[in-house]
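Q: Hi! First time asking for a complex rather than a single chain. Here are the components, and I think there are two in total. Is that enough to go on?
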Amino acid sequence: MSSLRAAYINEIYKLSKRKKLAVSCILSVVAVLIAALIVGVANNFMGIRITGESEFSVLVLSVLNYTLIPLFTIFVCIDMVGGEFSNQTMKMVLTRPVSRVKVYLSKALAAATFIIVNLLFIMVTSLIISLFIKGTLAGIGRIFVAYVASFFPLFVFALFTMIISTIFRGTGSAFFLSILCFLLCNVLGLFFSQLQSFLFTTAFNWYTLFLGSYINFHKIFRMFMILVGLGLMFFGIGSYLFDRKNL
Amino acid sequence: MDKAIVIEHLSKHYKNNRGIDNICLEVDKGDVFGFLGPNGAGKTTAMKIMTGLMQPDHGDVRIGGFSILENYEKAMQQVGCIIESVAPVPYLTAEENMKMCARFYQNIEDKQIDWCLESTGLLPYKKEKTRNYSLGMKQRMGLAMAMVSNPEILVLDEPLNGLDVEGMVEMRNLILRLAKERGTTFFISSHLIHDVELTCNKIGILYEGKLLDVRSTADILKEYASLENYYLSEVDLSVKS
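A: Yes, that's all I need. Here is the structure of the assembled complex.
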């Protein structure tokens, strides 16, 4: 376990030293501020009620969940896997007394940490803005649950991106293919409802299951198990490919 | 004598029919073993397999008695290496890179990190980001990172690449010092015959993926005027046969 811990700490350390983390935080704040501005203008000047103030954080999540957060996740995952293969820094880790499965697991855990930090950052920012608008933090429990729930499909997506990044040495090709797959899964989910159970992108809005007045535990459990299954499958494929990869 | 490295029937073939073929080799503890061969002979392939960067088609490598295929972590616990080019994380300083390597071992103090950097002449530049390092400095950095755990075995693939004459002499002296004072076993690949002759006490010649011969440097120099003569005669014999 000490080698896994060392590998994880190193991944987090590298992540913290990259500009991508700071850029993603800044862009997230900017995106939340723009969303607040649009909601404010629509509510006050155009007479269109997009959302109540207490739901502002959920509105932000519903937009960023399909845009900035997956984009940053792709950046980080590709940087951690394909980027390190292409600039040869991967050798520095792989020639240490740590198995490849542990190295891959440490990268997956670092990706999970990044997603959690990103979501936390967006949630806190949007809650502060909600507080300024309304003066209270009504519905904070539900908002927290929604953000926690949205972590799972994003993490599954991160594991999927890591597979692509392991297969392709070039970071550019891995990046475009990841985006293409994300868009394709969303489009397929729209047109072929029978495929929805197999597409991880369908679960990107599963947090809404926690927000209604009636909570369907059966559906939540089913979706959760699908995400667990996909996550384990993607991790298994990714770590196998990573383990077999020759440098 | 105890074996530091045992290579057993190691084979790896690429699609272009190059690679290595059925290599068997033993390196005793404390040896400074020189792996000689022309470009494309398979030296780097063998070393990549030895350090787990590549999977062999057949065979195994035992380091300190542990199989690299079955017990990788234990085998690598006692190994430091430079394989091909050295690529430290460019946006981190030398010190940060060293600390990242040190995390995989227990009880490595800052003193040890500083000693490694001092031995390789990088201590004055430890706060500099490695993206600003020259090729020679990166090569020194590679050796410093390999030495951080004070390993029993150092596997060095062309360690003198990119070094100036002064750097080559320093590196050679460091290798000899570590072998003498700490009993470190070295497995060094090089095509610089003169440096191998001055540094290694045992030589193996690899040619077109096959290990032609393994002998002690002293024995070779009794029979031949120089290591270069021995190398050329072995290669000549191989071509004729």
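A: Chain A is about 75% helix and 0% strand. Let me know if you'd like any chain examined more closely.
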